[in-house]
Write a structure and sequence with these properties.
This is Ribokinase. By secondary structure, this protein is α/β, with parallel strands linked by helices. The chain has helices at residues 38-48, 64-72, 114-123, 139-149, 162-165, 179-186, 194-204, 243-256, 261-275, 288-294; strands spanning 2-5, 9-15, 30-36, 53-60, 80-83, 88-94, 100-105, 129-132, 152-155, 174-178, 209-213, 219-223, 226-230. The protein has a single domain (2-8, 37-87, 107-296), classed as UDP-N-acetylmuramoyl-L-alanine:D-glutamate ligase. Helix 1 packs across helix 8 (243-256) and helix 3 (114-123) runs parallel beside helix 4. The structure holds alpha-D-ribofuranose.
């Protein structure tokens, strides 16, 4: 079982002619509300991919529909608490090129007490996995406790903040980073080559398996002497929101099923390529059958 200590947000989407500039008032031409949050997106993607995932989350009581949606997708939601607090939400602008800008309000995602997390870690099995992103509070504490219990840790340092760089990342078995996150963790300048980023990540975290996602430039896996490249799929993105989350959920499900790293990369990249052609966060995450069809393995 994988336990995902992750955010749940209500995403408010606006299609815009361009991302709003400082001081500008801009009219959007489409508006929708959907389930998002990096944590919820990754749980839902993992469940759609056939993985076993339990979500540790906090959700405003009025947004209980979000819990049902995760449950319908196959996520174990027993450990999602409904609380009398404003829930997390995001204001997401998507421009005509599919680029986005996200304003985040953490709300209930930042209300975890150490006691409640202790109970969740206590209930997990020592050989279970923990997955986390950077949208919930008490992150360092959770990583240390989960590691002390013997759990394997997968971490996605998104969104990147100064505090993340100070986390005990050496406790992680698996790290998922995009270009910006890799640059921030290694101190390399913007635009550094993939090989330089991977070298610097390996120097900093020699025991950690690293997956570097580069959007339209493909993805890499690195561990020890092994370095694998997954070429990008030729697609025109409509909305890149949650593409990284889709990738991570599909990767982890494939890994949980015992697939080798190159297969995990291929399935994850294929799922993300389908996702970027659709609008929204959880709404864009494909079903496993769609991914297998594109992989040429459909029935
Ligand atoms: O990664 C995409 C997600 O980031 C923010 O957490 C939004 O809620 C959105 O769903």
């Amino acid at each position: 079982m994988l336990h995902n200590f992750g955010s749940i947000n209500l995403d408010h989407f606006y299609r815009v002619p361009h991302l709003v500039r400082p001081g500008e008032t801009l009219a959007g031409h489409d508006y929708r509300v959907g389930l998002g949050g990096k944590g919820a997106n990754q749980s839902l993607a993992m469940a759609r991919a056939g993985g076993q995932v339990r979500h540790w989350g906090r959700l405003g009581r009025h947004d209980a529909w979000a819990k049902e949606l995760l449950e319908q997708a196959g996520v174990d939601t027993e450990t999602i608490m409904l609380v009398d607090e404003p829930g997390g939400h995001a204001i997401i602008q998507v421009d005509d090129q599919g680029e986005n800008a996200i304003l985040l309000f953490p709300g209930a995602n930042h209300g975890f007490s150490e006691a409640s997390l202790d109970e969740l870690i206590e209930a997990a099995a020592p050989d279970d996995w923990l997955l986390a992103q950077n949208e919930c509070n008490a992150l360092a504490w959770v990583l240390e406790r989960a590691h002390a219990k013997g759990m394997q840790i997968a971490f996605n340092p998104a969104p990147m903040t100064e505090e993340v760089a100070a986390l005990p990342l050496e406790l992680c078995q698996l790290l998922f980073v995009n270009r910006g996150e890799a640059e921030a963790l290694t101190g390399l300048p913007e635009g550094a080559a993939a090989n330089e980023l991977l070298d610097a990540l390996a120097a900093r975290l020699p025991d950690t398996e690293t997956v570097l996602t580069l959007g339209g430039d493909g993805a890499w896996y690195q561990h020890g002497e092994t370095r694998l490249f997954q070429p990008p799929l030729p697609v025109t993105p409509r909305d890149t929101t949650a593409a990284g989350d889709t990738f991570i959920g599909y990767y982890l499900a494939a890994r949980q099923a015992g697939m080798p790293a190159e297969t995990c990369l291929e399935r994850a990249a294929t799922a993300a390529a389908i996702g970027v052609q659709r609008l929204g966060a959880t709404e864009s995450i494909p079903e496993l059958a769609d991914v297998e069809t594109l992989l040429g393995q459909g029935t």
